[in-house]
């Protein structure tokens, strides 16, 4: 078999793997949407948003979160089997604490800010959605990170509507699934940017191809803005907030402004 034949076979293989990752993302996002809708419904079906209903809500939300994590983990197990060509080891996944009271707290906060109850409640409902959506992705990323299999790296694989920040940070190859998925699950998830961490096994790195394709699609649709600039000099994720009236010509203030966060 000549070198040209080998190249053709490798390309075919990569295309197959890319389709697998695409299918994985679609299914994971469908699961995330479903869990989000379930917790949102649980929250909105409450007759009121008061203390005495919080414990029941947390109980229900917690069951949905657990189920979404498990299903997300199962989807990841399926993908890992295909990519690694072997069954990942069974593991007990450990998850961090989740703020299941967030929909209540958000509603109360908005009320305290003077928002009318129907709007405050809808704001709380968006927090409920976030809990469900994050659970599915947390389950998948956690499983992807804990398989007992040797990985050579990981990619942050862009979703079709990835935010600018993810476009910047997805350019590089990461050493671990944890590092490839950083930022997701936090405040960043409010951007509805559902990128997925995918491990690299040996030479199987479909995330690289998929990211190039997504980037081209985002560029064609105008979704790529200051990204090229960002790759050369990543913007600090948060800039120091100066109190009004601060003398910005003061050398100490200048130093603060030049700090990288
Ligand atoms: Zn993003
Ligand atoms: Zn993202």
Shape: globular
Number of strands: 2
- Strands ordered across the widest β-sheet: 1-2
Kindly give the count of domains.
Answer: 1
Order of helices and strands: HHHHEHHEHHH
Unreliable sequence segments: 1-11, 228-241
Ligands and ions found? zinc ion
- Count of individual helical segments: 9
Q: Pairing-aware structural class of the strands and helices?
A: mainly alpha
Provide mean pLDDT, rounded.
Answer: 84
Beta fraction = under 5%
How far the N terminus sits from the C terminus, by CA atoms, comes to 53 Å
What is the helix content?
Answer: 55-70%
The radius of gyration over CA amounts to 21 Å
* Largest sheet descriptor: 2 strands, antiparallel
Task: Give the helices and strands, then pairings.
Elements: H1 3-44, H2 51-84, H3 102-112, H4 117-145, E1 153-157, H5 164-169, H6 177-180, E2 196-200, H7 206-220, H8 227-232, H9 251-258
Antiparallel strand pairs: 1-2
The structure holds zinc ion (2 copies).
């Amino acid at each position: 078999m000549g070198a040209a034949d080998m190249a053709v076979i490798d390309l075919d293989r990569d295309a197959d793997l890319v389709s697998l990752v695409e299918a994985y993302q679609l299914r994971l996002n469908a699961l995330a949407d479903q869990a989000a809708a379930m917790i949102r419904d649980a929250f909105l079906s409450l007759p009121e948003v008061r203390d005495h209903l919080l414990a029941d809500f947390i109980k229900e939300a917690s069951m949905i979160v657990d189920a979404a994590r498990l299903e997300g983990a199962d989807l990841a197990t399926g993908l890992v089997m295909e990519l690694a060509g072997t069954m990942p080891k069974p593991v007990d996944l450990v998850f961090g604490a989740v703020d299941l009271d967030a929909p209540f707290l958000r509603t109360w906060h908005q009320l305290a800010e003077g928002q009318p109850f129907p709007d405050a409640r809808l704001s709380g409902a968006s927090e409920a959605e976030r809990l469900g959506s994050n659970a599915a992705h947390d389950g998948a990323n956690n499983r992807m990170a804990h398989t007992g299999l040797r990985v050579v790296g990981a990619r942050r694989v862009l979703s079709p509507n990835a935010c600018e920040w993810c476009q910047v940070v997805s350019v590089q190859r990461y050493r671990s699934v944890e590092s490839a998925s950083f930022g997701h699950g936090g405040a960043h998830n409010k951007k509805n940017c559902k990128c997925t961490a995918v491990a690299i096994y040996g030479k199987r790195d479909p995330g690289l191809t998929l990211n190039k394709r997504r980037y081209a699609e985002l560029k064609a649709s105008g979704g790529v803005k200051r990204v090229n600039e960002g790759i050369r000099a990543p913007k600090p994720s948060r800039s120091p907030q100066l109190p009004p009236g601060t003398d910005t010509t003061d050398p100490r203030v200048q130093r603060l402004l030049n700090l990288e966060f």
